[in-house]
Every structure is written in structure tokens, then in C-alpha cells.
Structure prediction request, 275 residues.
Amino acid sequence: MELRRGQVAAVTGAASGIGRALAIELSRRGLHVALCDVDADGLAETAGRCEGRGTKVTWTVVDVADRDAVFSWAGEVLAEHGTVHLVVNNAGVALSATVDQMAEEDARWLIDINFWGVVHGTQAFLPHLLSAGEGHVVNISSVFGLIGIPTQSAYCAAKFAVRGFTDSLRVELDAGDTAVSCTTVHPGGIRTNIARNARTHASAEGITGRRDEMVRDFDRAARTSPERAAQRIVQAVERDRRRLLIGPDARVFEVVARLPAAVGQRVLAVGARRR
Prediction:
């Protein structure tokens, strides 16, 4: 879909990271933007960075895990902007815990946001895109939606689910008589705050040190800026890409995902033992 001045984009998780960079990039291109996040201060800052370009910017505090809240926000977007052309389901959180230590409440918290948040955003806006006959849905998965990673079972489960959900949606749209389409995005290491805001196993000893170690590891691996990721996502929409890998590390993950399971998983296990 060609992105044109005057179109409307709705972006979740817009208070920081990829969501903020996308909001700024889209407004720079002349699109009106409707933004949501649970972080009111960060959201207001993003909105401020988008303003002054002759486009309309609206923002609402929304927890994407709350289906009613997301549908209510979608109604507000239609009322305030009159239409919507692009929907980006980007909001996400992180959790670090081995399967035997992971608390059920933490796993549900993550899946409610990372998976159900995507479902809620897609279902809230899709009917409006279909009725308009044009539009695009972007759902953010991860390279962890390609292979299973130690201490990331809940995160991987949610991101695998996003991939399957969006792939199924794409086939449904391909089979229908519509110009509405969708893209699954698999970012590698992007320089965002997701690791700093992650939950860790609360009863583990040395939780502060463990979190600091996770942040250091993430920062070393995060080679792609949110701004570059936003540019790649915009290009993927305009080229109607089915799947987008972002970053050189994403290519490595894709190669590992194509290996026989016995090979790829043993490689990961060796790395985990060395740590």
C-alpha cells in the first residue's frame, strides 16, 4: 500500500522504541497519527515530537491487554480522524525466567500484552479497513518468534503466536476480494527499553544483578536503531511484504530456524551452558 499524506495511522506502544520512531516517521511523511500506550508521560513526549508538521496527532492511554479499552480507542480514532489506513500493533513487554521458575501470573501478563494485545488491535481496526477497501496491518513479532530461546519461553510463545496469527490473517486476506493486507515483523536487537522494563523471576537471588546482566547483554546485541527499524517497516508496508526481518542478527536467527531441530537446539544449549 502506498503511504500518502493525509492518511491515518494507529500505533500501539508509541511511548518509546519502535512505536515512537514509527509515529515520528509517519508524521514526517504527512500521515495523521493516533497513538496509544500505558505510559502517559512517554506518550505525551512522542505526541509532542510528532506535532508541528501540519498533521493531526491524537493520543490515548490504553492497556492493549484490555479488549474493551482497545475497541473503545478504535472507536475514538474513527470519531476523531474519520478513517484509518494503517494499524501497527507494536506494544510489548519482556520476561526472563526459566520454565521451572516462571510464575504463572508473569506469563499471563506477558501473553495478554504481547499476543492478545495484537489480536485486540487487529480485530478492533480490521472491520474498518475492510469496509474502506484499503489498508494494512503490521503486527510486531520478534526473532524470538523464529526459534526458542532459554529463559524466554513465555516471550517466544507469544511471538510465535503473533507470527501464526498474522500469517493466517494474510492468507485470509489473500483469499478475499480486498486491498487490505498485513505484514509480520521480526526485529532483531533494537535499541529500546524493553530489557530495562522486563520482569525477572521475582524469587531468584540476586535479581538486581540478573536484570543488569540481561540489560548489558541486550545492549551489546542491539545493533539497530528504532529509527532504522521504523524506516524498514514503512518500506515493507509500501512493498506489501509478508514478513520482514530487521537487523543482521535477524538473518542469523532465520538460518538457525531452518536447521534441523536437533542441530539448532543443541547449538543454543551449548551457548546456554557456557553462560
User: Anything to note?
Assistant: The two ends are 45 Å apart (CA to CA). Residues 37 and 62 are 5 Å apart (CA to CA). The first helix runs from residue 17 to 28.
